[in-house]
Structure formats: structure tokens, C-alpha cells
Amino acid sequence: MYLKRFALLAASAFLALPALAQYQDAAPQSEAGKVVLTLEDALKIALSENTSVKVADMEIERQQYARKGSYAALLPQVSASGMYSYALKKQKVYFGSDKQDDDGEGSSGGGGMAGMMASLMNPIMYYIEQLYAGTGVPFVPYVDPNQGQQGGGGSSEPMEMGRTHSVTFGLSAQMPLVNFQLWESLRLTGDQVELAVEQARESRLGTVASVKQAFYGILFAKEAYKVYNSVYENAVENFRLTEMRYNAARASELDLTRAKANVAAAIPNLYNAENSVELALWQLKAVMGVDLERNIDIAGTLEEYAGQMFSDIAEGERASLDGNSQLRQLAQQAEMLSRQIRMQQYAYLPTLALTFSYSYLTQSDIFNLSQWKWFPSSTVGLSLSIPIFSGGQRYHAIKQTRVQADELDLQRENAERQLRIGIRQSLGTMDTAMRTYDASKEALTSAEKAYDIAVKSYQLGKSTLTDLNNVELTLTQSRLAVSQAIYNFVIAKAGLEQTLGYDFNAN
Question: CA 20 to 30 Å from 415, out of 26, 96, 147, 288?
């Protein structure tokens, strides 16, 4: 295709050539492997293949997992533990008294507190001695508190407590019974899931608007290509007529040169229009999330959407912003901040939890597993925690969150104001496009009639090539103006639908 054009440009004859390949509905279907898509097909593919939509769906899934994980705080938290310890130096205990009488003699004689402690400890020490008898470990007998004292006074001898080796295995569990702060935090995770769902909806709305804009861009590029291709074909035809008249000595060399220049000037615009179509197709493939090398085309023409221009745009003025995704997210964020304030206030309330522990332990002075004796123990109870003083941390945290909520209210008010302006701008663009379309259609009808008259007049030699070129320029501008008006309308309508939050599935 390009070689033919360059050959035509290089040759000075500029004979009439067949029209360049046009992007008509039948042409793409004849090419092998090309997929022709409607706007609805493109939207369906984009909503399933677009990267931003996939990421938004994955974010919803992530928040759902986070929500399910947060409910684990309501269930018992069970943990196991184990410990081994070796006593480097055992603890010692005194049962006597170091207090002296007034005459300097100790008060820990056979009577008093020391005597009573001795009488209490003797049965216990006897029992311990019997336990040691089966282990082969020598038992250190109990020492009377009065032994080794000078003058019957002074302190008693210490007694070692515990064993050299100690092993403990334990299992503990705790489950909250009353915890208002925890319950409110669970509701907060539910709000986070809803926010992720709304963010995914916003991503879908943006994808739908982008696909529509890319689709309409292709249609507009095709219309521009048709216009410039028509200009090129007319230039070639005019050159043929001028050359015939020049050979018949009915046209000057200046007219022939102008005709050649018109053909040469039409080629760059044709190249640009063709390249615009290719780039618009690539943009559509990128938005859809498909392979950029995939051979696709779209069905329909821009003129088919002209019927939408006569809809009642007054409905847009009365449209509500309840479906706007940005305002919905701000409202959900405000609700989350309100819930966060309540959660921080609940930090002042007591909490109650059910606790359970089970331990299995042994102690021995010899490292012989076969001779170790294990003793189990278990407890169950209630744990009450009453917050009293935190240095003002909870108080200032509540104040901070309230300030953040006030900031969000201002942001919502400003966002709604900007959205209202955007709606008015879209409606104004749509209204202007409707008026421009009506005027351009009338101008196009007149320009087509004028061009037909100018061509016949030029063929009869009653007008010059300059007159014909001027009429053709007006015709080209009228054709482009009609397409531009339709394009401006559908682009503004797509933006308005995104602002109002019209879902594709709901249309």
C-alpha cells in the first residue's frame, strides 16, 4: 500500500489510481484471523481481562480473608509450652528467727515460734525422707533451729529447696467473654470489605468509560480516514480531468501543477488518518487487557450513535449522585471513622476472659528419665481487666480520630461540589454537540450540493481549479465537523455515566 503511494508521488503523471483500502465493515471480515467486536463485546472482555479490574477483585478477596481471620479472636487462643531448667544454686529457706532477747540470748529456743515451726516441719521432713529412700539419693536431715547457736541465740541453719533438674510441659487457653472493643473491631473489618467492593466497582466504572472512549476514538479515526481518503480520491480525479484539459489546451500549466500539488498534499493527511486508526485500535486492546498483537477490529459507525444525541439530557440535570463511587467511598470511610471512635471509647470498659491452664512437671536431683516422677496440675478461671490510667493515650487517640472525621467531611463537601461542576460541564458539552451536529448537517448538505455543482462547472470549463478546491475544503470541514460533534457527545455522555455511577450491567 505504501509502495504504491510512494510510487505515485514519485511519478509526475499522477494518473487515476484505485481508492486506498478503506476501513469498512466488510473489509475486516474478509481478512483471515481478524475478530470484529461490538461495543458490548469489548466491554465484556475488558471487565474480565482488564488488569485494574483483576487487581480490584483480588483486593476484595484479600479483605475477605482478613475479615475471616479477625473472627479468630472470638475463639479460644490455645498455646503449648515446654521448659527445662538446671539449678546452679538452689534456694535456701530459714525457719528460725534472728531476733535477740534483751539479755542477748536468742528467742528461737525450744519454745516460741521456732519450736512451733520445728514441730510442724518434722512430719513433712519425715515424708520427704521416705520419698528419698527409693531414689538412692542421700537425704540431708532436718537441722534443729537451735543447733550451732552460741548461747541459745542467733539464726537457724538454712534448708535448700527444690531439685537440680526441672522439666515442665504446659497447655494454656484463653477466650474473651466480654470485650466491646474487640466486637467493634470485627465490625470495622466488615466495613473494610465493603470499601474494597466499592473500590472494585469504581475500577469497573473507570474501565467501562475507558473502553467506550477508546471505541469511540476508533470510530472517529475511521470517519476521519474516510474523509481524507475521499479528499485524496477527489484530488486524483481532479488531476485526471486537469491533465485531460491540459492536453486539449483548455487548462493552463498552472492548473496542472496545482492539481499535482493537491494530490501530494492529500497523501500525508491520509497517512496520519490511517496511523490514527491503528493507534486507536492499540489503545482499545490495551484497555481491554488483551494481547497487543491480536488482530481485532470494531463494528459500527459513528453515525449510528447520532440517535443518542436527541435523548432528553435534562435527566442528567436532575440525576442524583447517590451512585457516584467517590462519594460512596467517602461515606464508607466516614462510617469507619465513626466506628473507630466507638472502638477507642470502648477501651475504657473492662474486659472479661475465660482462662485455662494445664501443666505436667517433674523435678529430680539425678538426670535419669526412667526415675522421674511426673505430676499434673490444671486450673480454670476468669480474668478481669479494668483499665484505670494510660497517661491520656486513649483520650488523645479519640480526639485525633474526630479531627480526621471532620477533615473527611470537608473533603466530601468539596468532592460533591467538584462533581456537580463536572456534571454541568458534561451536560454543556452534550448540548453544544447537539447544536453543532444540527448546524453541521445543514452545512454538509449545502457543501455536498455546492461541490457537485463546482465539479460539473469545472468539467465544463466555467470555473477554475481554485474554486473547486475551495468548495472541496468546505466539504471536508463539514464532514469532519459532523463526526466531531457526534464524538464529543458520546465522549461527554460516557464521562457523565461514570460520574453518576451507571454500571454496565444495569444499562
Answer: 288
Of 190, 195, 501, the closest CA to residue 329 belongs to: 195
Count of beta carbons in the 10 Å neighbourhood of residue 15: 10
- Let me know: does 357 contact 169? Beta carbons within 8 Å: no
Please say whether the beta carbons of 258 and 481 come within 8 A. no
Spatial separation of the C-alpha atoms in residues 14 and 402, rounded to whole Å? 78
Pick from 275, 312, 278: nearest CA to 430: 312
What lies within 8 Å, CB to CB, of 65 at 6+ separation is none
- Cα separation, 143 vs 131, whole angstroms: 18
**Predicted TM-score of the model (pTM):** 0.74
* Cβ contact 152:29 at 8 Å: no
Count CB atoms within 10 A of the CB of residue 332. Answer: 18
3-state secondary structure 70-110: HHHHHCCEEEEEEEEEECCCCEEECCCCCCECCCCCECCCC
pLDDT tens readout for residues 188-209: 999 999 999 999 999 999 999 9
Q: What is the pLDDT of residues 94-115, one digit of tens each?
A: 765 555 444 444 444 444 555 5
Contact predicate 236/14, CB 8 Å: yes
- DSSP structure string for 275-309: HHHHHHHHHHHHHHT--TTS-EEE---GGGGGGGG
CA distance 87 to 365: 9
Using CA atoms, how far residue 4 sits from 7, 231, 260, in Å, is 5, 17, 16
Please check whether residue 22 is in contact with residue 277, taking contact to mean a CB–CB distance below 8 angstroms: no
Is the separation of the CB atoms in 233 and 284 below 8 Å? no
Determine how many CB atoms are found less than 10 A away from the CB of residue 133. Answer: 10
Please, which residues have CB within 8 angstroms of residue 272's CB and are 6 or more apart in sequence? 228
